[in-house]
Amino acid sequence: MTKAWFYRGPPMEQLHVQYAKQRRVDDRAPVHAADEVQIDVPVGRVWNLLSDPTGWPDIDERIHSVRLDSAVHVDAYFDWANGRSRMRSRFAVVDRDREISWSGSAAGIRAVHRHVLEPLGAGRTRLSSLESMSAPLLVAVFPSRKLQATLTSWLHAVKVAAERR
Questions:
Q1: Cα 146–151–156 angle (5° rounding)?
Q2: Per-residue CA distances from 66 to 81, 88, 119, 128 (Å)
Q3: What would the 3-class secondary structure string for 34-49 be?
Q4: Fold entry, domain 2-164
Q5: Strand order, beta sheet including 31-39
Q6: For the chain, domain boundaries
């Protein structure tokens, strides 16, 4: 367990290329979360919400100050804030109506966040999300249960936003 306390994860470029772009999170990271939600709209509507980071503040009021360096595509950078945390992120997978994922860092924390979309028929979508985070001593201030609560809240907010439109 002490190794987890000091695990910083691979360097950001390696995390981006060998994990996020390969459609996987860092399984060794000490902080993990995964959840899914069924949304009563077609997959395209969910995709449109997730692939527009500038619209994320409309989904979750904790998100703000979103700035994209370019259009949403693989390797494009974007900056955003979630609460007080300023994030520098980079899209790793942009697979229309299937997956949108990124790697990112904030205050020494290295993360991979995946969103996987699956059409369920009858105009419904399953949205799965997985995230890993690593940094020395991260588990002391932000354990997996906190990330799980944040991820569950985010998925619920995406569901509400998608079904509202």
A1: 130
A2: 7, 10, 28, 23
A3: EEEEEECCCHHHHHHH
A4: Alpha-D-Glucose-1,6-Bisphosphate; Chain A, domain 4 (3.30.530)
A5: 31-39, 124-134, 109-121, 99-106, 85-95, 77-82, 63-68
A6: 2-164
27: left (phi over 0), alpha (psi -120 to 50) or beta: alpha
- Angle of helix 43-50 relative to helix 144-164, nearest 10 degrees, comes to 120
pLDDT for res 3:
75
pLDDT at residue number 61: 94
Average pLDDT by consecutive 10-residue portion of the chain (165 residues)?
Answer: 81 97 97 98 98 96 95 97 93 98 96 98 96 95 96 98 91
Asked if residue 26 lies in contact with residue 134, where contact means CB atoms within 8 angstroms, the answer is yes
**pLDDT value for 83:** 87
Please report the pLDDT score of residue 36 as a whole number. Answer: 98
Which of 31, 6, 22 minimizes the C-alpha distance to 103? 22
What span, in angstroms and rounded, lies between the C-alpha atoms of 53 and 70?
12
Output the six-digit token pair for 133. 């985070």
Q: Report the SS3 class of residue 22.
A: helix
